[in-house]
Amino acid sequence: MTLPKFIITMDGHLRMGMVNQHKDLLKPGDQCIGGGYYYIDYTSNRIILDRSSYDFGKPKWHLIDTLVVPDAYRGMRIVYCYDDNYHDDFDASEELQIVFTNK
Fold first, then answer.
1. Which of 55, 8, 51, 50 is nearest to 33 (CA)?
2. For 43-88, what is each residue's pLDDT tens digit?
3. What pTM did the predictor assign?
4. DSSP letters along 30-95, please?
5. N or C: lower Cβ tally within 10 Å for the chain?
């Protein structure tokens, strides 16, 4: 069953898609530093990332300074919501440099 999943690569790429497994979003040579699920909140113009990948775990945001995002999402805020009572939400749009790409 395909679900809306995302991964973050070591070089900072945010990859999102309807896939069976998170590894289906990898390209040759990618090193994944976490992933999870996403949904788009059009009311607040945000991409909400949450949960974790069974294979890759939660995103390791501290390993990157720049997030490379598909150009289709320009203007949207990107927020990762932790599913625990210990972490505040991670506002990637605020904490990281965002670079948009049309690749």
1. 8
2. 999 999 999 999 999 999 999 999 999 999 999 999 999 988 888 9
3. 0.94
4. --EEEEEEEEEETTTTEEEEES-BTTTBS--GGG-SEEEEEGGGTT-EEEEE-SSSS---EEHHHH
5. N
Cα gap 84→81, rounded to integer Å? 9
For residue 45, CA distances in Å to 23, 29, 39 come to 27, 32, 11
- Number of residues that make up the chain: 103
Element (H, E) at 8: strand 3-9
Residue with tokens 């390791």: 60
Q: What token pair was written down for 93?
A: 């749009």
